[in-house]
Design a protein that fits this description.
Two copies of one chain form a homodimer. By secondary structure, chain A is of the alpha/beta class. Chain A has two domains: 140 residues, 2-Layer Sandwich (Alpha-Beta Plaits); 277 residues, Ribulose bisphosphate carboxylase, large subunit, C-terminal domain (TIM Barrel), CATH 3.20.20. Chain A is 39% helix and 18% strand. In chain A, the strands form two sheets. An eight-stranded parallel β-sheet of chain A has the order 12-11-9-8-7-6-5-13, with helices on both faces. In chain A, strand 5, helix 8 and strand 6 form a beta-alpha-beta unit. The relative contact order of chain A is 0.11. At the A-B interface, helix 4, helix 5, helix 11, helix 12 and helix 13 of A face helix 4, helix 5, helix 11, helix 12 and helix 13 of B.
């Protein structure tokens, strides 16, 4: 590219009608001339050849992605992670803000992903390492999406549960349990105080525990638990499946009494979530398989915050995400940002319930609550409830007892004096 | 876990009915005791809690993933890439082969992904870095998939093109061109000798170039080009869209004369490809956006070979993939492996046409051909045809001239003496 070619991929914010653009933040490791490399980066993700041969035209003004601003973070002695065939030359770590015209693809999630984290992003000459850090949408673009149908308030209203976290539990053993035993265990956990008993994200419609049979037994057990406790309960059925089966899976599960549905958003694809959002009668709750494969490293891939925003856009009413602490190998700040993206203003989209998880139990509730900083979250132990030495009912009770202790401002250890279930967890 | 707990996640191949298992190869960086960490790794991706509290049962035999073999590659002074909250202790780089019971999820691509590259894989304590390197399926599992409907032979028969590569071209300018101009340029490229003129992977159904309008014009232009040249031609329309629109997009495009369809497999989700495979009347060709986000680094994520196999399983008749050379930042060996996975025996699945791409032109054809080692590949320039100084017809001609030179064993430079189109590329 010559100097004038390069200039066509830079713009000032006030030169553009910003409602026509998404804003993208990228971390880049640039090899060689920075400005030229950034121009290539914009060109590759939009109009790579901006005129026909022999025709006086320029598609950059309407269709070109454009650098709004950039800064060099540091000069690096080598790439942060080695990349085969990477270009050689001076390396600069940069942060860049790009305006990307959404008319290039429209309000469609697969096409949006193709534009902002597709071939152009990862195959620009001179940019061996790149991470998409953030994405922002103008309200006019957000208005083309339905977003969550229920949101936090909808889930709270279903349960009549206010001013406290929502208590989930993943039924364990997660794989191999016969539906009748699965239902019995879930029932016990509801009696002990769980709001939501859920399928593991790996357990879906399988020969030895079909959605038809499992949801029928769980639907009945849920009604019985509601009768026994006087509280509303949710059975969260995992309908992750091939996309052409998901609507049918929804219909079977909901008819049988599942009153929320789990979807592994990335494996089925974000637009499959959106498809289901148009059809669903119950809240949709997302789980996070596969996301870590492209988000764990600091300087390559896609930031989880981007995926949280896209999941909310697709219509998830709650998002289960890697939580705090060593177990989930995610920086605390990143967990906080993901929680915020569920709750922040986002056009007229409803708020999504954040559910930060990872090896939780009665013993971790206080820490999670303090790190979240509000009651607007879901808490999702598995073995912390279903591996409780006194059984699942006691496991669920221990969680509710821990919450009571927090509400009353009493140390767990003191509060446990009158609560054998909590005591057993402390002694474990 | 105690020693006996750990043993439950190890097995010898001849103890297992291997037709019930997938085989998975992982690269791992293990912190701490290797055997215990590997047991956790299997447990996390299968039955994390293998019995109910107080019940004498063990789900590991039927439902547990099991280590078949493992080797330590080296002891490392530190993790290859830093990971926040990673465990501390001795670090060993390992390669492990795992038998994973496919009955845990069945013949469903989203559920398969959840099991083999989901939460369990990336959130095992003591394994901050992991890459899924390979996946193998027993024939009984493969038999549950339809695979490519046309395959290489089907595409060759459509075109009447044998004993040579298939010549694709990505119409450029890729974004912004009015359909009437797009059709004119594609028409010229067919006259020049292209087999397949294609939409860019970023160009789908947009307000300024709808599938309806574009495919109608391209369908007509294709028939006219077939009449003029006496050869069969393909217009490859990109129907990447939200999953609930793709069948309709197929129907519109095919009715208007598109006779192959492009799908961005990861953004729509692999099961959306499979859904379309059941419905399609024409070959389905996959493009690779998003795959680099989790596959570029040597020691983290998922290897492209796994994705190539899954794309073939989902039913793609051709797979466009990052090709050879510096531009695509992919090791040559990896490109070769991906090509092989399109062609290798895989149950009774048809062979898929590999299309290794990246800034190709008449000048790179010989190198690509030699590196592929056979004529069974697609060649897919963009600007190398549509940015040709004499225009798209000349651009396409230059490719066919380069192939003639290769067939005759004549150096490009000599052959170009009678071929001004090829000459122009050499002079560029």
């Amino acid at each position: 590219m010559n100097a004038e070619d390069i200039n066509g991929f830079f713009a000032e914010r006030d030169q553009l009608s910003m409602s026509d653009y998404l804003e993208l933040e990228y971390y880049l490791e640039c090899v060689g001339d920075i400005r030229e490399t950034l121009a290539h980066f914009c060109s590759e993700q939009s109009t790579a050849q901006w005129s026909r041969v022999g025709v006086d035209e320029d598609f950059r003004e309407l269709y070109g992605a454009k650098v709004l601003s950039w800064e060099v973070l540091e000069e690096l002695p080598e790439l942060s992670y080695p990349v085969e065939h990477a270009a050689t030359g001076k390396i600069h770590a940069c942060r860049v803000t790009i305006a990307h015209p959404h008319g290039n693809f429209g309000p469609k999630l697969p096409n949006l992903m193709t534009a902002v984290c597709g071939e152009g992003t990862y195959f620009t000459p001179g940019i061996p390492l790149v991470k998409l850090l953030d994405i922002s949408f103008p309200d006019s673009y957000l208005a083309r999406f339905e977003g969550p149908k229920f949101g936090i308030e909808g889930i709270r209203d279903m349960l009549g549960a206010y001013n406290r976290p929502i208590f989930f539990g993943v039924v364990k053993p997660n794989i191999g349990l016969q539906p009748v035993h699965f239902a019995e265990i879930a029932y016990q956990s509801w009696l002990g105080g769980l709001d939501i008993a859920k399928d593991d994200e790996m357990l879906a419609d399988v020969a030895w525990s079909t959605t038809e049979v499992r949801s029928k037994l769980l639907g009945k057990a849920r009604l019985e638990a509601e009768k026994q406790t006087g509280d509303k309960k949710i059975y969260l059925a995992n309908i992750t499946d091939e996309v052409d089966k998901m609507v049918e899976q929804h219909d079977i599960a909901v008819a049988n009494g599942a009153n929320a549905l789990l979807i592994n958003a990335l494996p089925v694809g974000l637009s499959a979530v959106r498809m289901l959002r148009k059809h669903t009668k119950v809240p949709l709750i997302g789980h996070f398989p596969f996301i870590a494969a492209f988000s764990r490293l600091e300087k390559y891939g896609v930031h989880t915050k981007v995926i949280t925003k896209l999941q909310r856009l697709a219509g998830l009413d709650a998002i289960i995400m890697p939580g705090f602490g060593n177990r989930m190998m995610t920086p605390d700040q990143e967990v906080r940002e993901n929680i915020e993206e569920c709750l922040n203003g986002m056009g007229s989209l409803k708020r999504t319930l954040p559910v930060p998880g990872g090896s939780d139990s009665a013993l971790t509730l206080d820490t999670v609550f303090r790190k979240v900083g509000s009651v607007d979250f879901g808490f999702v132990p598995g073995r912390g409830i279903f591996g409780h030495p006194m059984g699942p009912k006691a496991g669920a009770s221990s969680i509710r007892q821990a919450w009571k202790a927090i509400e009353k401002g009493i140390p767990l250890d003191s509060y446990a004096e009158t609560c054998p279930e909590l005591r057993a967890m402390l002694d474990k």
